[in-house]
Design a protein that fits this description.
Length: 441
């Protein structure tokens, strides 16, 4: 069976209600917290993507019992010091940067050397940025020459509290140090640039000694050592990052209307909503509620007759960092020039996404300029594609694949998009939902 799809027809206007898969960030964090808990934790609607399966496989290799049945999962934790494993252990984070970086914080006190590996894409990503603070706590690292994977970590039996300045807006690095801080003597203090805060919210729900003082640009986080984590039962909401592709598909198709049910609209994750509203897209949150610290809602999106250009405020970047590829598609149809600055973090993802965003726009015939970490996109409200476009060799970055599908359905042309299995990383049911939206029922 071929591992590519062909799209040669623009989607018609639609009116649909859909539900997307469970939140990936919360799913992975639930797995890791539950592995440290004392007792049985249960999750419903756990995202069964390759990233989450990799997290489950990792904790099983660390001696934790896991039971999985479809989207239900049960983890029997043995406590904060309950990992049990042999020497010369190798852990595989596959494609998951979240898993790869967070697990290192949990291993701050490992008595044996542990080797961490990943796939080709993850192996190219920067792990020096998390090794630096964890080395100050007491761990020893051996990284490859390019600062990536494979790496070896050897923990310390006396983890020391540190003061850490996380200046890049990396929730992964921040969360890894929080996990390590839970095992450190004294008080660990993190001054962190604003980024997604699922780890902090879970700490608050679990009554852990993690205090957060929110400031304008940075958060001040103080962590103290713990003795015990209670089991964590969780019904995981739908993922805003997965929803983003369908939000943009609806926004780009005039006279369309889409409702996405029970989505996590955590304020640290809704940068795309803020940006699209600034561009004139009508988006409404309905049935807002709170669940274990997270804000949830049904999202209603209306197709736009006219899209305004935007000079995007960089302060919105961290809350939309995973969504910029599809945001660029909206800018491609705007009536004017849109500017997005300070996007260097995009090239620290599964692929160099700023470069890939530019490549997709070039293939579409969209006038744009890239200089350093800034992209300027000259929108065309009448953009229609009538040529053949091939998308391949993108390090199997799931978001490049899904962005290409949305572009093909929104602007036309004949698209040959390779490596469709890449969606298994984060969103295995993506194409199923696309078919639901395209269906006439």
């Amino acid at each position: 069976m071929t591992n590519k799809i062909i799209i040669n027809k623009k989607i018609d206007s639609f009116y649909k209600k859909i539900t997307v898969s469970g939140d990936k960030s919360i799913s992975i964090r639930w797995v890791l917290f539950s592995s440290l808990a004392t007792g049985k934790s249960k999750a419903q609607n756990l995202l069964m993507s390759e990233d989450v399966k990799a997290a489950l496989a990792v904790i099983k290799k660390l001696g934790i019992k896991v039971n999985v049945k479809k989207n239900f999962c049960e983890i029997i934790g043995k406590g904060i010091n309950g990992y049990n494993y042999k020497k010369n252990l190798i852990l595989d984070a596959k494609n998951s940067g979240t898993l790869g970086r967070l697990i290192l914080g949990l291993l701050i006190d490992t008595p044996y050397k542990i080797k961490l590996i990943g796939d080709k894409s993850l192996s190219k990503r920067d792990f020096k940025r998390i090794a630096i603070p964890l080395e100050k706590i007491g761990a020893k690292f051996k990284l490859n020459k390019s600062k990536g994977l494979p790496l070896t970590i050897e923990g310390t039996n006396n983890p020391k509290s540190i003061k850490y300045f996380e200046e890049k807006g990396s929730a992964q690095c921040k969360s890894s140090v929080i996990f390590a801080g839970l095992k450190c003597n004294g008080e660990t203090i993190i001054k962190a640039k604003k980024s997604r805060n699922h780890t902090e919210l879970l700490c608050k729900y679990l009554d852990l000694p993690v205090k957060v003082k929110e400031e304008k640009i940075f958060d001040l986080i103080k962590i103290k050592k713990i003795k015990k984590i209670k089991p964590l039962n969780y019904k995981i909401p739908s993922d805003i990052s997965s929803s983003a592709f369908f939000i943009v598909l609806a926004a780009l198709n005039e006279n369309s209307k889409l409702i996405i049910k029970n989505v996590n609209i955590n304020p640290s994750r809704v940068g795309i909503i803020t940006i699209l509203k600034m561009m004139g897209i009508k988006i409404i949150f309905n049935n807002i509620k709170f669940y274990k610290g997270e804000k949830l809602a049904d999202i209603e999106i209306f197709g736009a007759k006219k899209i305004k250009p935007i000079n995007c405020p960089p302060k919105l970047n961290s809350g939309a960092i995973d969504e910029f590829l599809v945001i660029f598609l909206v800018a491609a149809k705007a009536n004017g020039v849109s500017i997005f600055k300070n996007l260097g973090e995009l090239n620290q993802k599964e692929s160099p996404r700023l470069k890939w965003g530019s490549k997709i726009l070039s293939l579409m015939g969209v006038k744009h300029y890239v200089k350093d970490d800034t992209i300027e996109i000259h929108g065309n409200p009448n953009l229609k594609i009538k040529k053949k476009i091939v998308i391949k060799n993108y390090l199997k970055d799931h978001r490049v694949f899904m962005t290409s599908v949305i572009a093909a359905l929104s602007f036309g042309g004949t698209w040959s998009i390779h490596d469709k299995d890449s969606i298994k990383t984060s969103f295995p049911t993506f194409l199923n939902i696309i078919n639901i939206i395209k269906s006439e029922k």
